[in-house]
Design a protein that fits this description.
A hairpin with a 2-residue loop joins strand 3 and strand 4. The protein is α/β, with parallel strands linked by helices. Helix content is 33%, strand content 21%. It is built from 11 helices and 20 strands. The radius of gyration is 31 Å and the shape is globular. Strands 7, 8, 9, 10, 13, 15, 16, 18 and 19 form a 9-stranded mixed sheet that branches. Strands 2-1-3-4 form a 4-stranded mixed sheet, covered by helices on one side.
């Protein structure tokens, strides 16, 4: 090799090295710039099949229309959330969306270990690690991290994420001037609906309790709950219900009655309901088709007879009306009363008599109803309406049927309270199912990807390298 040829190769070699170094530096610089821009402007793309790290368009619209300043403070350092378990990271990524879609939302992370005096600013809240404090002005709401998930029946694993639902509803709560009030009526051996109360209170309702025997029904309550009465109501209590529903002609009230099939006879309550065009029957509703009940025939899956009140339910959401007393409509329309079937069962349903032990073919009747509603309206310059909702099952809204993400019972009854009350415009967020993997590749596609990345691509690079080496060798 002569000196001229050697200098030429050194020149091109040096040029190639400079170009390579500059290219690497350019890629690193571009990556750094994009990282900073992404951090500043919230640029991100959720590539999971169900967008479990994103927020829904419902929340985006809500945030973009927000006019009040809201501060979200997470009682944990940011690094613990950003690098924690899969479920913690999922929550962190969802929360990061809130300040991205509204300049009125401020997200902060407070490490109580390094800021031990922070919690003392809120002595009435008893803040602890992992709690989330949402506030606007003087109004505050605290969400515990554990409340943002649904769990399996035994509580051993997480089934669904409610992070978006809890965060959006908490923001809505602190910007609202007042909460809708619901009263739980007692005095007749009722079961306390703790799970239903917890659900309502977690979704911007104020829940109180009062005795039908000794107190007048709260005139400011928009809804009242009579949950599994064991004894029949006295006439004075029924008159209180009539007066409250009539509301001096203004109406606008909703009475929810949940039945226990094992209660004593309730002839007075039944007569009251009959005046509204709805009634109760004896026995237990069941489904004969095993694909239409949960574990037992008398834990039947309800069909949404009126989908208007089920629009918050996802496509596979199942409402189980366990130990349901059959209910019915006596008429469709009469004297300003109109009845509506909300939940019913299929053609393979039937009624098991109270004294029967097993389901038989002769018990199958079809057309069994689980929840009905009656509306009474006054038609003046404005239309005013009061409603009575009768559920054949109180058990459907207790325990695991309410708290497990496997069932849609909680979503359905919450949606019903909202639709009939002043929260009809509330934001309803469907939980994100976390029980399945998020990739959508088939096994064949996965095999192709493995072969391409681990075998074909390396071999291709090796072949190109050999060809380039041979060409340079024979120049």
């Amino acid at each position: 090799m002569n000196k001229k040829e050697k200098n030429r190769r050194l020149k091109y070699g040096a040029l190639a090295t400079v170009i390579t170094v500059l290219g690497v530096l350019l890629v690193l610089a571009a990556n750094l710039v994009m990282d900073k821009l992404s951090e500043k402007y919230g640029w991100s793309v959720d590539l999971t099949a169900d967008e479990r790290y994103a927020v829904s368009q419902t929340t985006i619209d809500f945030l973009e229309g927000l006019e009040q300043d809201v501060t979200i403070q997470v009682m944990k350092d940011e690094e613990s959330l950003a690098t924690g378990s899969y479920y913690v990271v999922q929550a962190y990524q969802v929360m990061m969306n809130y300040p991205r879609y509204s300049d009125h939302v401020k997200l902060e992370f407070v490490d109580l270990v390094n800021n031990p005096t922070f919690a003392s600013k809120y002595p009435d809240l008893d803040l602890g690690a992992w709690d989330i404090l949402i506030q606007s002005g003087d109004r505050k709401e605290v969400v515990a991290f554990s409340q943002m998930y649904d769990y399996s029946d035994d509580g051993s694993w997480i089934t669904a994420s409610r992070v978006e639902e809890k965060m959006t509803n908490a923001i809505q709560s602190v910007i609202s001037e007042e909460k809708a009030r619901i009263t739980v009526l007692t005095g007749y051996g009722e079961t306390s609906p703790e799970d239903l109360i917890n659900l309502l209170e977690a979704n911007q309702f104020e829940v109180t309790s009062q005795s039908l025997l000794t107190e007048e029904i709260d005139p400011d309550a928009e809804s009242a709950i009579l949950f599994a009465p064991q004894n029949d109501l006295e006439s004075t209590s029924l008159k209180k219900l009539d007066a409250w529903l009539e509301n001096d002609g203004a109406q606008g009230k909703n009475l929810f009655v949940f039945l226990d099939p094992n209660s004593a006879a309730l002839p007075n309550l039944e007569a009251f309901l009959n005046e509204w065009g709805i009634g109760m029957e004896e026995g237990f509703a069941f489904e004969a088709n095993s694909s239409l009940y949960y574990e037992k025939p008398y834990y039947p899956v309800a069909q949404y007879a009126n989908t208007e009140y089920a629009d918050s339910i996802s496509g596979n959401g199942l409402t189980i009306l366990a130990l349901c007393r059959p209910v019915t409509t006596i008429f469709e329309s009469k004297d300003n009363y109109t009845t509506d079937v909300l939940l019913q069962f299929t053609a393979t349903s039937g009624v098991l008599p109270p004294d029967a032990d097993t389901v038989s073919q002769e018990n199958i009747t079809g057309d069994v109803k689980g929840m009905v509603m009656s509306s009474h309206s006054w038609y003046g310059s404005d239309v005013s309406t009061s409603r009575v909702v009768l559920s054949g099952s109180a058990m459907a809204f207790t325990g695991g049927l309410m708290t497990s993400g496997t069932f849609a019972n909680a979503d359905y009854i919450l949606g019903l309270f909202r639709k009939l009350g002043s929260q009809s415009g509330s934001v309803t967020i469907v939980p994100k199912d976390l029980t399945y993997t998020t990739h959508s590749m088939t096994s064949a596609q996965a095999n192709v990807a493995v072969w391409a990345l681990m075998i074909i691509l390396p071999v291709l690079v090796l072949v190109i390298g050999i060809v380039v080496w041979l060409r340079r060798k024979h120049r």
